[in-house]
Write a structure and sequence with these properties.
binds zinc ion; alpha+beta; DNA Primase, Chain A; 626 residues
């Protein structure tokens, strides 16, 4: 698939895209030295180990091991196939892509779905503001205090009542009806024809985090056909390839900047809660789309902030909901706070009745969900036995906290609140070990000499020059590493600088992530690098010798079988020469003598010495590099 977009186009996109900007849209980044760091969006962590280098156009997480270039990031972050990640960035940074003729058909379908959703949203939006029949919807918005600016910001629309307006519209524009069926926008009648699935309804487009329409929510409008009979008040898109219940958050794309600025996200249930708070100038709000917050939604939101406050109704049902949500929060590695509304209010009615300041005060009084849980569980004056019983139910909840530091904090806090011993809370449930880590850190493996050498060359032009001077290219056994090394040497020689991100994109994801990690981890150069280069070269030379010896032994056996004695003789002599050469090299460990080398050698710890007794070993034992 990668072959379909020309390499120079990819290079241009990489060159124009700012990786810090692209990553920064998803991860709060802070500059540290030459790099940027932040909390990894791919695993739960408290201290930032996610590192981005603008200079090298790569990223790496030292916690879970993911890494790569700007395309890799977008693919992972937004779950996109490669061509789509390229397309997205090309569009954003103004790089023209060649017409796609023969792309992956499923990819084409996905794109077509997004386009159709987008067109439908725009169509409904025009109907809402321009059509006479949408007057009740406009009146309803006004009644609920939603101004046109807010309504437009959230792309609100109106689906006409007639029942085939969208169908005719799609047909007229030669848009594929079967795609619209799959998106749940229209239905197919048995026998023949299609019908609009949303009729006489206020439409709420649901987008992904980057603002692309994945589906629709809708609400019946008083005074129209949708408010009659037993038609549902709320009707959403069915599950489609773009939309899954519990996977999206309403208004996230519109709220993300405000969430970053505020450092906090507010979670409500309905569309009008989002709109009502927005009207009051509170923009860092998303809605859970009618369901209780799911783990997936929390993970999505966690990319933007860890401080999340949920509005709960101030009645027993709301308190129960708050209690239940604690588990999901803990599982997501978050504390979670709850703001409790006065009885009978939802965020929309509350902010319209009591005003912005009152809403902010309510948020200011938000309580930690764990404290809330414990307070409800332990009534004043409860006996030790009662509190111990509560501890038994709390312990498995706390066991959901993956981070050991946070786990200990939570246990201490809970023990204090319950006035019981921490031991009572520390019995983590069995099987926890398997269920907790979402992304386990990859097994740390020392790199092979070829990989290490290429990494050194990518890091330091002097290393590339040193490999070239020593004739190191000929020692590579693996074609992929050799061409990569050759390209690095070539770009160093041409003086144009090494396109690290571009070269990495030719490796498989795991190798690219490893190398990106090493490049970002070590500030290299100087004497130590030349020592490492020499050690790698020596290692490769030994491996090449081993391979050559094997070939010779095989040849000798074959020549013997054929009775070709002169050939046996020649092969034996070469084998002998090889052994002598090798023995000689062992006495002088530096294969490439350089003036700085002898001094440098003493700075390398004992552990980095290659073991000459084990020339077959494939791994380099160099602590720095693991
Ligand atoms: Zn990570």
């Amino acid at each position: 698939m990668r072959g379909r977009i020309p390499e120079d186009t990819l290079a241009e996109v990489r060159a124009r895209a700012s990786i810090v900007e692209v990553v920064g849209a998803h991860v709060g980044l802070r500059r540290v030295g030459r790099n940027h760091v932040g909390l990894c969006p791919f695993h739960a962590e408290k201290t930032p180990s996610f590192t981005v280098s603008e200079e090298r156009a790569i990223f790496h997480c030292f916690g879970c091991g993911v890494g790569g270039n700007v395309f890799t990031f977008l693919m992972r972050m937004e779950n996109l196939p490669f061509p789509e990640a390229v397309e997205r960035l090309a569009q954003r940074y103004g790089v023209a892509l060649p017409e796609r003729g023969e792309t992956d058909p499923t990819q084409g379908l996905r794109e077509a779905m997004f386009r159709l959703n987008e067109k439908t949203a725009r169509f409904y939006q025009r109907v809402l503001w321009d059509a006479g029949e949408a007057a009740p919807a406009r009146a309803y918005l006004e009644e609920r205090g939603v101004g046109r600016a807010s309504a437009e910001r959230f792309l609100l629309g109106y689906a006409p009542a007639a029942g085939d307006v969208l169908v005719r519209r799609l047909r007229g524009a030669s848009l594929p009806l079967e795609v619209a069926v799959r998106l749940g926008l229209i239905g197919a009648r048995q026998g023949n024809g299609h019908y609009d699935r949303f009729r006489a309804r206020l439409m709420f487009p649901i987008t992904d985090a980057s603002g692309r329409v994945v589906g629709f929510g809708s609400r019946s409008v008083p005074g129209t056909a949708s408010a009659t009979g037993d038609l549902p008040k709320y009707l959403n898109s069915p599950e489609t390839p773009l939309y899954r219940k519990g996977a999206h958050l309403y208004a996230l794309a519109a709220a993300r900047d405000a969430i970053r600025t505020a450092g906090r996200a507010l979670v409500v249930e309905g569309y009008f809660d989002v709109l009502g708070l927005a009207e009051a100038g509170i923009g860092n709000v998303v809605a859970s789309l009618g369901t209780a917050l799911t783990l997936e939604q929390l993970r999505l939101l966690r990319r933007f902030t860890r401080d999340i406050v949920v509005f709960f109704d101030g009645d027993p049902a709301g308190e129960k909901a708050a209690e239940k949500s604690l588990e999901t929060f803990l599982e997501a590695g978050l504390w979670g706070h709850g703001a409790f509304l006065p009885r009978g209010d939802d965020p929309d009615t509350f902010v319209r009745r009591a005003g912005r300041e009152a809403a902010l005060a309510l948020l200011g009084a938000a309580t930690s969900l764990l404290d809330f849980y414990l307070e409800r569980a332990v009534r004043p004056g409860s006996t030790i036995a009662e509190r111990a019983a509560v501890a038994q139910t709390v312990a498995p909840l706390l066991g959901k906290i993956a981070d050991p530091f946070e786990y200990n904090m939570a246990v201490r806090r809970a023990a204090e609140r319950l006035a019981v011993s921490e031991d009572l809370l520390r019995c983590r449930p069995a099987g926890r070990r398997e269920s907790v880590p979402v992304h386990q850190a990859p097994a740390v493996r020392a790199p092979g000499a070829e990989e290490l050498l290429v990494t050194l060359m990518l890091r330091d032009p002097a290393a590339a020059a040193r490999v070239e001077a020593a004739g190191g290219l000929a020692l590579f056994a693996e074609e992929a590493w050799r061409t990569l090394a050759a390209d690095v040497i070539e770009s160093v020689r041409s003086g144009g600088g090494v396109d690290v991100a571009g070269l990495l994109s030719r490796l498989d994801d795991a190798a690219a992530a490893r190398i990106a990690g090493r490049l970002l981890a070590t500030t290299g150069g100087g004497a130590e690098t030349s020592t490492l280069v020499d050690e790698c070269l020596a290692k490769l030379r030994r491996q090449a010798d081993v391979r050559r010896r094997e070939v010779l032994r095989r040849e000798i056996r074959q020549h013997e079988a054929h009775g070709d004695h002169p050939a046996v003789e020649r092969a034996l002599r070469e084998l002998d020469a090889l052994r002598q050469e090798e023995g000689g090299r062992r006495d002088e460990p530096a294969p490439v003598a350089a003036p700085a080398h002898e001094e440098a050698r003493s700075t390398v710890p004992e552990a980095t010495e290659l073991d000459p007794a084990d020339p077959e070993s494939d791994e380099l034992e160099i602590g720095d590099w693991t």
